[in-house]
Amino acid sequence: MTDEIVVIEGDGIGREVVPAAVEVLSAFEFDFEFVTAEAGDATRDATGDALPDATYERVADADATLFGAAGETAADVILPLRKAVDSFVNVRPATAYPGVDALRPETDVVFLRENTEGVYSGHEDRLSDDLSTLTRVVTSSASRELAEYACEFVEDGRGPAGDPDEGFTVAHKANVMRETDGRFREEVLAVADERGVDADEELMDAFATKLPLDPTQYGVVVCPNLAGDVLSDLAAGLVGGLGLLPSANVGHDNALFEPVHGTAPDIAGEGVANPTAAILSAAMLLEYLGHAGAADRVREAVETVLAEGPRTGDLGGEATTEEVTAAVVDRL
Ligand code: ATP
Ligand code: MG
């Protein structure tokens, strides 16, 4: 059966790293149909709309989407697209690789971030000249759905340790936000208990101290929306280099994959962007579509190239995006 993959390059280095990722996907003989779609600043300038309906619908109807980056229209593009794939979890691995200068080279964690509610649910109001408020939304259903995903993730050995017995850590602030984070914590731990998955908990502020001091204490980390956003960026800082980090927005029967970095306007158009984050996003896409073996091969190829070169400028090398991509494809 053909899998339809929507490809959105977007702006800036998205136009350079997404083709690199497609080249890697094309190195396999899978039955993929790539459908290109437009979104971002350039699309807005050309059509008046950063996210045309046609793009939204293509993404909603696809099997998976590979997205690059959007410039100043990022929020207008990526937030609706996450809705288009009905994403309830944002998956963000932070892995340090040999050969890459990292603050904490032993870091290997995966964040599973709630992707629909919390303080990002959009319920903000300006009530007067002096007062603005935000309503924080936490449902048992979304918390349980995230926890079910986390349990499956751990059971399938997809955590950094590859060992289901490692379980996961839930980070929260239920001692202060007793109602909202209290509900989140309770539901996540209850699901883990029902499924026999080992789960421990950590207050998110304590976690923010302990992670950089000793990242080896953690593997899979489950978080509410805002906490996941901040804590996964903290972990990104430990592994060195925005050019390395992939992410996935996973929904019920659809998903969107994107590098964590943005459009990198300072180097865009020069052909020197690091394609690693986009290629690792493509590896997550392969795994999502049921090609776990191929995904592992991509990760191994990337790891070898990071260790042995060629490397792009952000990692101290002089290679172009094309040269690094060719080296990865060669390794495959
Ligand atoms: P945006 O508003 O689109 O996020 P930005 O200016 O914040 O743009 P980022 O893409 O977030 O830029 O990147 C921040 C810094 O990291 C920039 O200096 C950029 O060059 C560098 N960077 C990000 N991604 C890569 C990459 N793939 N390869 C090399 N350098 C990168
Ligand atoms: Mg940025």
TrEMBL record:
Gene3D superfamilies: Isopropylmalate Dehydrogenase (3.40.718.10). It comes from the Archaea. Keywords: Oxidoreductase. One of its GO terms (molecular function) is isocitrate dehydrogenase (NAD+) activity. Pfam families: Iso_dh. One of its GO terms (biological process) is tricarboxylic acid cycle. Residues 4-328 form the Isopropylmalate dehydrogenase-like domain. Belongs to the isocitrate and isopropylmalate dehydrogenases family. This is Bifunctional 3-isopropylmalate/3-methylmalate dehydrogenase. It comes from Halorubrum ejinorense. The gene is leuB.
